[in-house]
Amino acid sequence: MTSTAPETPSLESCPRTSAEGGQYAPLSEAGLARIEACRADARAWNAWRAEGAADAASPAPRAVPAPGAVTCNADYVDEYFAIMDGLDGDIPGRRAARSYMLGSTGIVHHLVVASSYVPRFFDRRTYDTMKYTVETTHRILCKVIQRYLDDPDYRTIFSYDERLAELILLPRGYDALLPFARFDVFLDENDLSLGFCEFNGDGSSGMNENREITNSLRDAPAMREFAQRHQVQECELFEAWVEEFGRIYSTFVNRVEHPRFAVCDYLHNGVVDEFHLFAKLFEKHGTPCTVCDVRDLRFDGEVLRDAEGQRVDAIWRRAVTNDVLEYWDESQDLIEAVRAQKVALIGSFAGHIVHDKQIFEALYHPKTRAFLTQEEIDFVERTVPQTRFLDESEVDLGEIRANKDAWIVKPTDAYGAADVFAGCACSQEEWDGVIDRFANGAAGAPFLVQRYITPFRTLILPPDLDIADHAGDEVPREGALYNNLEGLYCYNGRFQGVFSRMGPYATISKPMAGITCATLWVDCDLEA
Q1: Phi/psi of residue 266, each to 5°?
Q2: Residue whose C-alpha is closest to residue 481's, from 498, 502, 463
Q3: Alpha helix locations (H) across 103-203?
């Protein structure tokens, strides 16, 4: 494979977890049964295609690649499966990829991330759609952030904790309003229409998952054959951010000549392996960098220091703001250093405006529409699902109860798909329980109800979690239809790559047997 930038040698040489230490989260019996159902869906889809699709007697399956699609993505997947079939399932390649992952840094909360041997293949039309989406979304969100900072009246359309409102207004001191983000979308690959799932700010992760899964496939026989037939390019998610971070710091009002950087989070919640990889790369680029817990920072009025007493001049904030509120008293040294502009906090706490799911409702507000262009208003109407507080003052709770398949309930400010419930995945009794539990602030925190977007489904191989325990003729070769969720990385307004997640359930997340796939651009001819 070729890549959009050379593979970073410093990352390749990073020590990886021992194979004995790496482990996957086990699948429940219900999870295994769900995967079998996804295989059955794939069989039905293939039968429909074999009948002639549009002329078939059986009804079209929902949200699957169809004749006349404007992208070639499904054709690439079919070709890759055909290559695997020609290699008798490519079992040795699949075993090697699994072995690589078990010894890799692709670890989230002490578990190796589950992945598929089949990457997500995207063509140039898909790339161009994603690029336009990122650039347009970033422009709109920067307008919203700036208006919030400048206009006290505009702030009234948001409902934030008073402490959070204070943090958002702290001085930034550098030029980038939204330095780092990931916009999660549901993309229909038949017509390239899309809808947003959520916006993620500075706590966005997944870059190392993508890197390690891509590495696991680099020498795979099926991938080598595919790459001989096509131009294949990878997502470069490390060098680009390190370089952009340094450029942003160069605009900081109190920058120093020889700075020291830090990647900061509440480390028990963080993707620490990824943090250390970035810190190592910052050092390769000539800037010392550490990884530290926000609670260990100390500020003496002039200099912010880490637990070892070393100065910190700029922070890549990986901590989400609701964690800052939870550890409020222990975070005051960081907050006071930001207030005094003695440290560059990249990105600023104003990024919370993007992260909080209230933003979806705010984008439709007349006060927001007043400063957007007509193109931007049209974009919002096409892509942002109807979102309201789950409160009887804002929505008809009876209608929400009666039409469960049309809705999904989410907290306004959380991460990791915690307390997210899709009505289509609930029985009526379960859905009524969700409404009772979260409506009208019953849970002690505000919740939202949002129009459910049916995810597009793609043929993949379910993860080979136990392939080492089976003889070659016992290893499943059959594909399954999984739901897709694409995270579009935005590095200060530039589209940089995709975090491709898939899952067998209506909610796509790691706790719901979700997986990550390598993202590859096929025949796109992207500039390096």
Answers
A1: -90, 100
A2: 502
A3: 124-150, 152-155, 162-168
Residues 6+ apart with CB under 8 A from 231: 2, 522, 523, 524, 525
Q: Give yes or no for a contact between 458 and 190, defined as CB atoms under 8 angstroms apart.
A: no
Is the bond leading into 347 cis (omega within 30 degrees of zero)?
yes
- DSSP character string of 211-274: HHHHHHHTT-HHHHHHHHHS-EEE---SHHHHHHHHHHHTT-TT--SS--EEEEE-GGGS-HHH
Q: Which has the closest alpha carbon to 265: 204, 309, 206?
A: 204
- The answer to whether 138 touches 490, Cβ cutoff 8 Å, is yes
pTM: 0.93
What is the Cα–Cα distance from 331 to 352, expressed in whole angstroms?
16
Q: pLDDT tens digits for 185-214?
A: 999 999 999 999 999 988 889 999 999 999
State CA 52 to chain mean position distance.
Answer: 36
* DSSP line for 184-202: EEEE-TTT--EEEEEEE-T
DSSP class of residue 450?
E
Pick the closest to residue 347 from 323, 373, 315 (CA basis): 315
In terms of phi and psi (left: phi > 0; alpha: psi -120 to 50; beta: otherwise), the region of 424 is: alpha
User: How many Cα neighbours within 13 Å face the side chain of 55?
Assistant: 3
Cα Rg for the chain, rounded, in angstroms?
A: 23
- Burial of 99-136, coded b for 16+ CB within 10 Å and e otherwise, reads ebbbbbbbbbeeebbbbbbbbbbbbebbbebbeebbee
Q: Per the structure block, which two tokens stand in for 334? A: 């960081």
DSSP code of residue 115: B
The Cα–Cα gap between 175 and 133 comes to 22
Q: Which of 441, 369, 445, 418 is closest to 160 using CA atoms?
A: 445
How many CB atoms neighbour CB 17 within 10 A? 17
pLDDT tens column, 343-390: 999 999 999 999 998 999 999 999 999 999 999 999 999 999 999 999
* Per-position b or e across 428-446, b if 16+ CB within 10 A of its CB: eeebeebbeebbeeeeeeb
Q: At what angle do helices 239-249 and 272-284 cross, to 10 degrees?
A: 70
C-beta separation of 129 from 192 below 8 A: yes
User: How many angstroms separate the CA atoms of 469 and 471, rounded?
Assistant: 7
pLDDT of residue 517 exceeding 70, the answer is: yes
* β-bridge partners, 298: 305
End-to-end, the C-alpha distance of the chain in Å comes to 13
Query: Within 10 A of 146 (CB to CB), how many other CB atoms are there?
Result: 15
Using a 10 angstrom Cβ sphere, with 0-12 exposed, 13-18 middle and 19 or more buried, the burial of residue 157 is middle
Name the nearest CA neighbour of 343 among 275, 267, 262, 286: 262
